[in-house]
Design goal:
The structure holds two protein chains of two kinds. Chain A is globular, with a radius of gyration of 18 Å. Chain A has a single domain, classed as P-loop containing nucleotide triphosphate hydrolases (Rossmann fold, 3-Layer(aba) Sandwich). By secondary structure, chain A is of the alpha/beta class. In chain A, a hairpin with a 2-residue loop joins strand 9 and strand 10. Chain A is built from twelve helices and ten strands. In chain A, the strands form two sheets. Chain A has a six-stranded mixed sheet with strand order 6-7-8-3-9-10, with helices on both faces. A four-stranded antiparallel sheet of chain A has the order 2-1-4-5, with helices on one face. In chain A, helix 4 runs parallel beside helix 7. Chain B is mainly α. Chain B has one domain. Helix content of chain B is about 75%, strand content about 5%. In chain B, strands 1-4 form a two-stranded antiparallel ribbon. Classes of the chains: A alpha/beta, B mainly alpha. Chains A and B meet through helix 3 and helix 4 of A and helix 6 and helix 7 of B.
């Protein structure tokens, strides 16, 4: 468990130097059906802690993380530990040590909970069932249940558990608390915080309470461009700036949540 | 009574052929979104390769074990053809549905034409092994043995496919891929390997149908594959995509309806009856008879 595949790979290939970001994105452009969704995004995820990717709805946060993983066609440069992964197919990027929790959770409804986890096992990896079941005992209890019959919160736990099953170099988590009941939000927040202790996280999140709790760095997108980068706490303390960048007062936030 | 038994046996035999073709079609469409019109061509390849082996290859000649050799050769040839088609024609066009349809339709026309060019359009007599000769008495009816052989083979393929999708890692990938291919790749899995595997498995089943179809019909012809393919597509629509059990049930249902309607009404009405059932299913149950949202492959 002490073995860090990322560090080993970086050393072997002369990758990231100390102090270099784990993930660096330069000039990322994405066009989807004729619209220019990302217009030259530059961002960096440090080698530890949580980097929150923030912004109003529809500014391209989810597209940005999908572009990093190669799930949407893009141009630009994506470097993971100094290595250019832009031309790599998605499965190679993720198998090299990137855990992904997508916005819609991406659990397989027809598969059981156990099968969803088993699918995520990597050929030469050592799946950390102990860790996953300790974080989410529910997943062990419901191992034989079809994932499609789980509640939204349980599905989210399965999605996060699946990403934590492998030891990763980076965890990409897209809106883990979206559409969840407040009690479940706390549980998911705990899991994200717990995960972040062991692996750097790129977190897309609208819930500013969760961002305040777990995020170290903040990157704010607007209209497909990065408009702010800096420590998360600093940004959130400045209510004026937060409102200007994220367009949120509490009321506004709730309204947007319903709009989706 | 004996007529009914005979019709049931013949229907089951035909249903077995439909199942061998439709199961692969259904998996390929479910996982890859590819409407594989070339599937009938694999059947033609299987049938002709088995016939060719029985004539030219010593181990495949004769009535007993030789027949097994001929069927194995035909199936291997069809499987290889499917593997190559996926690699060379489908994979480069992945996600481009129109082009895929053009390519597979093209193959479905080209392969029978090629076969006809080499061996002619006349039906070729298929060697009949001792085990498939004659009849067996079932409830007073003399049921041809080849029907029973077909049913036994199809049942074995059904069992094998169910084991594959339910118990193997690739089966798991297939079931997940049917739901959400992108997410499977996002878990670090090269889903294209599963595509090739499923295509080859489908081709194997179809070419097996081609080789055994020679038994059912007594001959192989260049266009056998194409005419069976139409009913296999109907089976897939009725049975639900990527559902192996649904496919098996629909195969038997379609074949039975065809046999009974053809016998008890006017010959030819069976095919129309099948189309009527297809229409009824499409109007009432859009996902096919067995498809449920939570459990699509099983």
């Amino acid at each position: 468990m002490t073995e860090k595949p990322g560090a080993a790979a970086a050393a072997a290939e002369g990758g990231a130097l100390p102090g270099e970001p784990l993930l660096r994105v330069r000039g990322l452009h994405v066009w989807i059906e004729g619209s220019h969704i990302l217009q030259g995004v530059d961002l960096a995820v440090p080698a530890s802690g949580v980097t929150a990717l923030l912004g109003r709805n529809g500014v391209g946060k989810t597209t940005a993380v999908k572009a990093v993983l190669g799930l949407v066609p893009r141009t630009g440069e994506v470097l993971l530990e100094g290595r250019d992964i832009t031309a790599r197919p998605t499965h190679e990027i993720t198998a090299s040590g990137v855990g992904y929790v997508p916005e819609d959770r991406g659990v397989f409804n027809g598969l059981t909970v156990a099968e969803n986890l088993r699918l995520a096992e990597r050929p030469r990896g050592r799946p950390r069932y102990g860790l996953v079941h300790e974080l989410f005992p529910e997943l062990r209890k419901r191992a034989g249940q079809a994932a499609g019959t789980l509640s939204g919160g349980q599905q989210q736990m399965l999605a996060i558990g699946r990403a934590l099953l492998n030891e990763n170099r980076l965890l990409v988590v897209d809106e883990p608390t979206k559409g969840l009941a407040p009690r479940v939000v706390a549980e998911v927040a705990d899991a994200v915080a717990r995960a972040a202790a062991g692996v750097p996280v790129l977190l897309v999140e609208q819930n500013l309470a969760l961002v305040r709790r777990v995020a170290d760095e903040a990157v704010v997108l607007d209209a497909g461009r990065v408009v702010h980068t800096g420590p998360a706490a600093e940004l959130l303390e400045d209510a004026e700036r937060t409102r200007e960048l994220l367009g949120v007062s509490r009321a506004h936030n709730a309204e947007e949540g319903e709009g989706r | 009574m004996s007529t009914v038994v005979l019709l049931l046996a013949t229907g089951l035999g035909l249903g077995a052929l439909y199942f061998l073709i439709a199961s692969g079609l259904s998996l390929i469409f479910g996982l890859m979104d590819v409407l594989n019109f070339a599937h009938g061509a694999f059947l033609t390849v299987g049938g002709y390769a088995a016939w060719w082996a029985s004539v030219h290859l010593p181990f495949a000649a004769g009535g007993g074990w030789g027949f097994l050799g001929a069927v194995a050769f035909g199936t291997a040839a069809g499987t290889a053809a499917a593997f190559l088609v996926e690699l060379l024609a489908i994979r480069p066009l992945y996600g481009r549905h129109r082009e895929q349809i053009l390519v597979t339709v093209g193959l479905s026309l080209a392969v029978p034409a090629l076969v006809q060019g080499i061996w002619g359009a006349d039906p070729l007599t298929f060697p009949r092994p001792d085990i498939a000769r004659g009849t067996v008495g079932v409830l007073g009816a003399a049921v041809p043995r080849d029907r029973l052989l077909l049913v036994a083979v199809a049942a074995a393929v059904l069992g094998g496919l169910l084991l594959f999708v339910r118990r193997t890692r690739y089966g798991l990938i297939v079931r997940a891929g049917v739901e959400d291919r992108a997410m499977v790749t996002a878990l670090g899995i090269d889903v294209r390997k599963a595509f090739t595997l499923v295509f080859a498995i489908g081709g194997a089943a179809a070419s097996l149908a081609g080789a055994l179809g020679g038994l059912y019909f007594g001959v192989v012809t260049p266009t056998q594959g194409v005419s069976l393919l139409i009913f296999a597509f109907i089976v897939v629509v009725i049975g639900g995509t990527a559902s192996i059990t649904g496919c098996a049930l629909a195969s038997v249902a379609v074949a039975m309806i065809q046999q009974f309607a053809n016998y008890y009404t006017v010959a030819g009405l069976g095919d129309i009856a099948v189309v009527a059932v297809l229409a009824a299913v499409l109007l009432t149950r859009q996902g096919g008879l067995t498809t449920r949202t939570a459990e699509r492959v099983a």
